[in-house]
Amino acid sequence: MASLLFRAAAISSPFSISAKAYTLGRLARRTLSPIRSMASSAADERFQKVQIQRDDTVFDAYVVGKENAPGIVVLQEWWGVDFEVKNHALKISQMGPGYRALIPDLYRGKVGLDVAEAQHLMEGLDWPGAIKDIHASVKWLKANGSPKVGVTGFCMGGALSIASGVLVPEIDAVVAFYGTPSSELADPSKSKAPVQAHFGELDSFVGFSDITAAKALQEKLNSSGVPFEVHIYPGLSHAFMNTSPEGVQRRKTMGSKDEDYAAVDLAWSCFESWMSKHLRSA
C-alpha cells in the first residue's frame, strides 16, 4: 500500500505559496525581462491543439497519443508549456499500449525563458484557477474517449498534481515529481486518488520538494486511506527528470550538475507501473 524510500528526514510543514515563490526567487540572476510567448517548433507538430471550456474561460491545451486510451494530464514546471513538458508528454503517450496525454496551458501562452521570468509567472498564477483548468482537462479527456484519467506534473505541476488528487474527484491516479501543495491549497491527507511521488534526496527547496517535504507528505498520505508511494532518489537534486540537452544545461545554470539516467529510468518505470495499475484495470 505505502512505500517511503529515504535516508534522513526531519518533519517540516510546507511553505505557503508566497513563501515558496520567495525561496525559488532567490535563484534569479538578472532583472526580469519581458515574458515571451511560446515559440512553435517541429516537435509541436506531433501535438493537436485544442481549446477547453471552463466556467467563462477558454484555454488552450496540447494533446498527443492514442485516441480512446487512458488519459493523463501532464502539468508544466514553473517555466510554462515548453520543450521539456512536451518531451515528458510525448514519452508518456508512448508507454505500454499507449496513453492520451494532454498538457493544459496554465500560463495562457506565456513561457519563462529564465529563472526571473519563471518566478514571475508562478507568483502570478491563480492556483485555484489552475485546479479548475485541471478539472476541465480531466473532464475533456473522459468526454473524448479516455475511460480513466490520471494527472502528473513536475515542480509546480507536481504540487498541483497532488492538490488535484484532493480537489478533483474524477481523477483516477496521481504521480507527482518534486512538488507539494501549500496547506492553503490542499491537504494531502484528504486525497481521493492513489498518489505516487518522487523526490531528489539533495533537493534544496525546503518545505516544497526537499526531503522534509517528502516526509511530511508521506505522513499525510498515510492517514488518507488511499494507496500511495513516496520515492526519494539518493544524490539527486531538483528537476532530475529533465534529461534533454537543453534541460540539462538549464539545470546546470541553476547549480544542479547531478545526472543519473538509471534513476530517471527507474522513476519512469515506477510511473508506468502506477498508471497502468490504476488506469488500465477494470
Automatic annotation (TrEMBL):
* Pfam family name, one: DLH
Q: Any idea which GO molecular function terms this record carries? A: hydrolase activity
Domain named Dienelactone hydrolase is located at 59-278
Q: Name one GO biological process term.
A: response to zinc ion
Query: Per its UniProt record, what InterPro entries does this chain match?
Result: AB_hydrolase_fold, Dienelactn_hydro, Dienelactone_hydrolase-like
Protein's recorded name: Protein usf
Source species of the chain: Dioscorea cayennensis subsp. rotundata
Its ancestry begins with: Eukaryota, Viridiplantae, Streptophyta, Embryophyta, Tracheophyta
